[in-house]
Amino acid sequence: MRKLNFLFISVLALLFSCSKEDKKAVELIQKSIEAHGGQKTWDSAEELSFQKQTSLFLENGDEESESTQQISFRLKPYFEAKISYEKDGLVHRIYFDGANTKYHMGENEIKNEGFLQSKKKEIDAAFYVINKPFDLLTGAKLVTYQGLQTLPDGSEVETIQVIDGDPNDPKTDIWWYYFDLETFLIVAYKTKTSDHFSLVYNLSWDQRSAMVFPATRESYRVDSLGNHLYLRAKYHYSDFQISK
After folding, report:
1. How far is Cα of residue 85 from the mean position of the Cα atoms in its chain?
2. Which of 37, 83, 142, 164 could form a disulfide with 41 if both were Cys (CB 3.0 to 4.6 A apart)?
3. Contact at 8 Å (CB) between 212 and 185?
């Protein structure tokens, strides 16, 4: 009987510990949402547009490519996205109407299904960055508080881990978000995909609207401990416009 009582108490203690950590993660995300402009401000936005400049680098440090994109998202009454950029003298346009993805290279429409799926992932990735931290408490995510950690640049941060999918599936991506101890802005995040780790720093912020968006970012390929392997990308965001 004593063993059963001890086991029961131990289980209760474990459950309480987990729920306490989850509560800490939720509180941290809520503070970050307020720091980035507040949930009400985000929910009231109907359209959002901005310019994104990207430079990609190879492992040896050489520049692989450079691009400037005009990106817009319609958030209400349904999600819609447009990305346009110029390459090799032609205007490229990606459009998602809420159900289907279309791609035009100049006047020609590309209908290859695999290619269109890759372009939809490009839209998702662009929105993923802008939508943080406002979607961290939505969906069936496993969110846990990870405590204080020190980033490779020496800054101390509070950390949460987010698993959006089956945690037992090795193909499920795992994310770690790092929050400034005073402002609660997301200063960096690390992700584990099926074949590599990345660590992305938000280096500066655009605060000219009601929201706080990233202005400059750097992405590094890292090992499992977060040590830098090489610089993979630099990003610059500008000309944010919000319509309500």
Report:
1. 22
2. 37
3. yes
Count of CB atoms situated within 10 Å of the CB of 206: 16
Residue 72 CA, distance from chain mean position: 17
Residue 33 clears pLDDT 50, i.e. is over it = yes
Return the C-alpha torsion angle 161, 167, 168, 170, nearest 10. Answer: -70
Domain ranges of the chain: 47-131+203-213+235-244
Residue 33: closest CA among 24, 42, 25: 42
Q: According to the model, what pLDDT value does residue 4 have?
A: 43
* Cα distance from N-terminal residue to C-terminal residue, the chain: 63
Q: Percent of the chain scored above 70 by pLDDT?
A: 91
Q: What is the arithmetic mean of pLDDT over 47-74? A: 96
Token pair listed for 105: 């290279």
Q: Where are the beta strands (DSSP E) in 58-107?
A: 63-74, 80-87, 90-96, 101-105
| Four-CA torsion 26, 30, 36, 42, nearest 10 degrees | 110
Model confidence pLDDT, tens digit, residues 91-106: 999 999 999 999 999 9
